[in-house]
Amino acid sequence: MKHTAVIFVCMGNICRSPLAEGILTNLAETGGLSRQLTVDSAGTGGWHTGTAPDRRSIAIARKHGIDISLQRARQVSQADFETFDLILAMDGGNLAKLLRKAPENRKHKIHLFLDYASGRNENVPDPYFGGDDGFLAVYNMLFAGCSSLLEKMALDRAS
């Protein structure tokens, strides 16, 4: 597999995208693929810039042996459209914002995460206003999607 740079994008970069970053990084490390991947996350909005992920995201990640507590929220920048090979939006609203912001010649890099990873044209719901159960459901969706993404990337590189 050749080196690939992936960025996950949600609204504020404190719930879904930091979890996805942590999960994919962990899967790549345990699978011996960390040298082939650069993984990051960002938000379409900048409200939480510089803050740690939501405590519930940190807790659900920790429960699964993943530490995301050192991540800090940031907003998507124009440089990200150049730097990353795959820009994966958590939902249709963030996908639309990314497509509006991206240069025309970089829009091919932007995809809905679950659609790209596993062919499911589905949003990853924002768990921010819900309870712990919502964070567990999102973790499970992200884990399945990140697992599929790694498989897809390995197959794409092999062909």
UniProtKB/TrEMBL annotation:
It comes from the Bacteria. Residues 4-152 form the Phosphotyrosine protein phosphatase I domain. SMART domains: LMWPc (SM00226). Signal peptide: none annotated. Gene3D superfamilies: 3.40.50.2300. The active site is at C10 (nucleophile), R16, D126 (proton donor). Keywords: Hydrolase, Protein phosphatase. The keyword tRNA processing does not apply. Its EC number is 3.1.3.48. GO terms for molecular function: protein tyrosine phosphatase activity. InterPro entries: LMW_PTPase, Ptyr_pPase, Ptyr_pPase_sf, Tyr_phospatase_low_mol_wt. It is an enzyme of class 3 (hydrolase). Belongs to the low molecular weight phosphotyrosine protein phosphatase family. This is protein-tyrosine-phosphatase. It comes from Rhizobium rhizogenes (Agrobacterium rhizogenes).
